[in-house]
């Protein structure tokens, strides 16, 4: 964000050391209402988007104006942005050095984050992102991340912390989650058998994945999303999985009492 600084210039006049007394204001002048003062200029809240590309790395980081309008959240995101950029630069510099010493080509590293709003409620802001990265391996990779911002407390919370425990959340959504995951697996695999790879054929723990909270009514959380990165539920070629399950009375029972008013069963 660019900030324009304006400097006012004062005009100095008069050669004598003595100042002539100012004329008394006339009745007509004093009877006039004071001129209205202009309101202070408002700085618009905008989204932030950073893009850098050079011989060492490519870096992208962005977040929406909804997040930028919350000072504490903006500060958190700006801090994470700078940290990610520093770490990427350091890792890419080291990778380039090793490539030169080993006599093999160096491919620029990359890191990308694009925060998007999942749900914007009066007391909560839920966001998610796909974190893409490349650090010299056979191919790029990516993982998910989430921010659940508590507007009342003014702090970031992990979605899982709104439940009594990970185990309680898993138990409340396991059946519909596993059913939908298997349905998506079958569609992607088109009959291919993954029985020889247990982690790609058995159900996984949804609470160990990236959990996001969503809403269809803009008033309360009524659905839960499970974002699954490559390798967690299937081979890299299958990509990621996204499973959404509704908030049910069973899920409500797993929510901590102090947060239950933020949820509604569907």
What does this structure look like?
The longest helix has 32 residues, at 71-102. The two termini are 42 Å apart. By secondary structure, the protein is an alpha+beta fold. The protein contains 5 helices and 10 strands; from the N terminus they run H-E-E-H-H-E-E-E-E-E-H-E-E-E-H. The strands form 2 sheets. Strands 1, 2, 3, 4, 5, 6 and 7 form a 7-stranded mixed beta sheet that branches. A 3-stranded antiparallel beta sheet has the order 8-9-10.
Descriptive keywords:
266 residues; alpha+beta; Actin, Chain A, domain 4; 2 domains; 7-stranded mixed beta sheet; 3-stranded antiparallel beta sheet; 5 helices; 24% strand; disordered N terminus
Give a short synopsis of this structure.
By secondary structure, the chain is α+β, with helices and mostly antiparallel strands. It contains 5 helices and 10 strands, in the order αββααβββββαβββα.
What is the CA-based Rg, rounded?
A: 28 Å
Low-confidence stretches: 1-33
What would you give as the CATH superfamily of the largest domain? Answer: Fervidobacterium nodosum Rt17-B1 like
Count of DSSP H/I helices: 5
Distance between the termini: 42 Å
* Proportion of beta-strand residues: 15-25%
State the order of secondary-structure elements, H for helix, E for strand: HEEHHEEEEEHEEEH
Give the overall form. Answer: flat
In the residues, how many domains can be counted?
Answer: 2
Q: CATH topology of the largest domain, what is it called?
A: Heat Shock Protein 90
Number of strands: 10
Could you describe the largest sheet, including whether it forms a barrel? 7 strands, mixed
Average of the residue pLDDT scores: 86
Helical proportion?
25-40%
Provide the structure class.
Answer: alpha+beta
- Report the CATH architecture of the largest domain: 2-Layer Sandwich
CATH class of the largest domain: Alpha Beta
Assembly type of the chains comes to single chain
Protein name: Deacetylase PdaC domain-containing protein
Keywords: Coiled coil, Signal
InterPro entries: PdaC
């Amino acid at each position: 964000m660019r900030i324009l600084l304006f400097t006012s210039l004062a005009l100095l006049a008069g050669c004598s050391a003595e100042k002539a007394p100012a004329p008394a204001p006339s009745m007509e002048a004093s009877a006039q209402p004071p001129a209205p003062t202009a309101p202070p200029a408002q700085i618009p809240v905008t989204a932030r988007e950073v893009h850098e590309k050079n011989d060492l790395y490519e870096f992208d980081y962005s977040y929406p104006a909804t997040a930028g309008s919350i000072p504490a959240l903006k500060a958190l995101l700006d801090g994470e942005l700078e940290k990610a950029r520093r770490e990427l630069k350091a890792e890419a510099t080291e990778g380039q050095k090793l490539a030169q010493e080993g006599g093999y080509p160096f491919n620029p590293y990359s890191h990308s984050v694009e925060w998007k709003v999942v749900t914007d409620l009066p007391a909560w802001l839920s966001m998610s992102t796909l974190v893409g990265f490349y650090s010299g391996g056979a191919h790029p990779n990516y993982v998910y991340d989430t921010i659940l911002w508590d507007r009342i407390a003014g702090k970031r919370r992990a979605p899982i912390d709104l439940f009594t425990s990970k185990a309680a959340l898993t138990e409340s959504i396991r059946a519909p989650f596993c059913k939908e995951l298997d349905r998506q697996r079958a569609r992607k695999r088109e009959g291919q058998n993954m029985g020889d790879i247990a982690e790609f054929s058995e159900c996984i723990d949804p609470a160990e994945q990236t959990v996001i909270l969503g809403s269809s009514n803009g008033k309360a959380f009524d659905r839960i999303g499970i974002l699954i990165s490559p390798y967690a539920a299937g081979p890299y070629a299958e990509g990621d999985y996204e499973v959404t399950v509704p908030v049910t009375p069973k899920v409500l029972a797993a929510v901590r009492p102090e947060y239950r008013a933020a949820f509604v069963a569907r």
